[in-house]
Design a protein that fits this description.
lipid binding, Cytosolic fatty-acid binding proteins domain-containing protein, 34% strand, alpha+beta, globular
């Protein structure tokens, strides 16, 4: 079964309210995004154990991303744990749309919080 068929099968069992929520997810979070500013990226990557040079490179980057996802309570929440054999730390990533229409991505590692702000390109 293809991913498209799985999605169609899932949509067949959704209530009308759930279908509306899914449509809202696709509308709000789907598409291409480009970062326009950020907050405390250096502190976040310091906590992640990233060296000074790489932190400075990351701080200068203005990434673009494409998002397709679902959410709860008007926010996308992803929990990441490091792969076996790596030295990373567990992280929580929350995505929400501000009243101004920006995508706000919040990263948390231990007590360090970083926010990145994106405007929608398409």
């Amino acid at each position: 079964m293809t991913e498209e068929n799985k999605s169609a099968d899932t949509e067949d069992v959704l209530t009308e309210e759930e279908k509306e929520a899914l449509a809202a997810i696709k509308e709000k979070f789907g598409g291409k995004w480009k970062e326009v500013r950020n907050e405390n990226v250096d502190g976040f990557f310091t906590e992640m154990g990233v060296n000074f040079f790489l932190r400075k490179l990351v701080s200068l980057a203005k990434p673009e991303m494409e998002t397709v996802a679902s959410y709860e309570n008007d926010k996308l929440v992803s929990k990441a744990t490091p792969c076996p054999g790596t030295t990373g730390k567990p992280a929580v990533v929350t995505r929400e749309i501000s009243p101004e229409g920006e995508l706000i991505t919040t990263f948390e590692v231990n007590q360090v919080v970083c926010k990145r702000f994106f405007t929608k390109l398409s």
